What does this fold into?
Amino acid sequence: MIVDVAVPYRIHSTFHYLAEEEPNPGLQLGSLIEIELGKRTTHGFVLGFPKETSIKSDKLKPVLKVLAEEPVFNESDLRFFRWIADYYCHPIGEVIEAAIPRHCWKISNRGRAKASRLIEAADSQTAVGIPTTAVTAPELTEEQRNAVAKILEVAPGCTILLHGVTGSGKTEVYMAVVAECLRKNQGALILVPEISLTPQLLGRFSARFPRQVAVLHSDLTATERFVQWQRVKRGVARVVIGARSAIFAPVTNLGIVIVDEEQESSFKQEESVHYNARDLAVVRAQMEKAVAILGSATPSLESYANAKSSRYSYVTLKKRIHGRGMPSVTFVDMKERDNLYSQKIPWLSRLLVNKINEKISEGLQTALYLNRLGYAHFLFCSDCGHTWRCRDCDVALTYYRSPLSLKCHYCGAIRKPPQDCEECKGTSIETIGFGTEQVEKMLVQLFPTARIARMDRSVVKNRRALESLLNRIADKEIDILIGTQMIAKGHDFPGISLVGILMADASLNLPDFRSNERTFQIITQVSGRAGRAEHKGEVIIQSLNPAHPVLRAAAEMKAEQFYDSELQARSAFCFPPHTRVAVIRFQHRDAKKVEAFAYDAADFIRKAIVRANLRCDIQGPAEALLARVKKMYRWQCLLKAQSPKVLRYFLTLVIHRAQQLKSPVQMSVDVDPLNLL
Ligand SMILES: [Zn+2]
Ligand SMILES: [Zn+2]
It folds into this structure.
């Protein structure tokens, strides 16, 4: 019997092996087996049993053994994996390896014994402390009821964009739909951007559907993950919540796939297979006749365009629940020196200081948003102009005071800050720019009696730290919260009635065609934190360019106006969603080699485009904006075409050529890239 096997390596072909003819109950499609590949022993996945092979039978190697009792995937999973491999131009072995991580099948005997007790036990919830009786659903608003009804009407296999303003109660809509699925004995899959940042959502689902929720995330131990995976596979848990890789959870009889905050870039896998779990949710729902819901207050332009063109159904929630109004927004022009609180602090306006004081005296809370980590942007020698940069990456090091360090945000390298300049030995070292750490320090001086906390990656390092901080905010133990986009992530802060946005226009200047969209999204999300409870919210946006149409549209909650004008702009420049884009990246430690290889590949594609007479544009090659990361020099080219099929055609050609050339330069392909740096 010939066996077609995919191996977990960057190899674009599959391999044929030989298995005993006698009935081998362990060996079937989806089986995990051990094989010899070249000189090494590795595991592989059985894709099928072809009738014949071009390899001579005495050259066929035998299957060494079957590694797991049960197959790790079935035919319908395989169809999904093949789609992914095809669409993202990635070897199927690595796709399966990404979809079914080792901890799902590789477990010690002791672990297995412990796991099997946990899987069947009724109280086997390992992820969250769960009540055993369900919390009853609150009465939905009319708008929510209509949304639920519309979603339930949609035909299986379709996708819905649920566009609801911040505070409109999307989670209740999700839960009502999930309850309906469970009633029909269907499973539900809920994807969230970062599980560690969403303890509130997790808690609500677990309380509503006790014992039925499985959580898949990276904080779990190997045994816990195995238990959760098995609970899903055996149908013990019918509701799965997880981050992007949960899109592969083995939910049977899938009724609904929900992607919350669908615009978030964390759904995109930036290593190995460059899939976007949001897009895979749509595909999986289609294949399994389930319904996909993409929910957001600020949808991606791609999803919005799909809703406009009726490829997706469009359901909106325009009102905040509990009759709360939208916050009022004031702009402060930070170019006007008179508006500054002090000439020494260029990031703080007089108005914001007054408002914070007002809120403190009323016992209300303030949140300040700044998308910059650290104390200062970088260090600078004013004698010779030297700046401190990472040795391995082409970026300046961020300066931190506690603990005192210089950090690279790309490779994680940490250095001690210098006493004197490494170039000229001068001692006039200055800091340039500011980050959340500096803002926090200044706030302590400006508001000596206020209780101040910071919420960013450098202080909130895990779920426990986040939960404790969220509890302190909820218990009104904090007056002023300063944070990065972490504060925008769907947390419900009922006491916060003032939001201040510092340097609102910083992200508009990034050289990326999505910079307008991202700025609109973050301003809308951060503003949405204001005034969720009985107090009307206020938002103060500090900007050097307060008339900027993107900031205005976000402030005035004119989402449709923003989306429509942005769609026009994208169309003029042939950017997605009007075209499909792929980036081909090249990297190597040798700058010359990578450059030569990139030119060769681009040249090859150009000629192929002419030969094929298909409409496809290639830009580059060019040095990546981050020209060096982790000692690797980086080049890239951008491919644009009207359809993913055309892109795939040229990508496949160039991948084959690279394989033939056997160059040491690493080449990778990113279809629908989110990161163009
Ligand atoms: Zn110097
Ligand atoms: Zn670095």
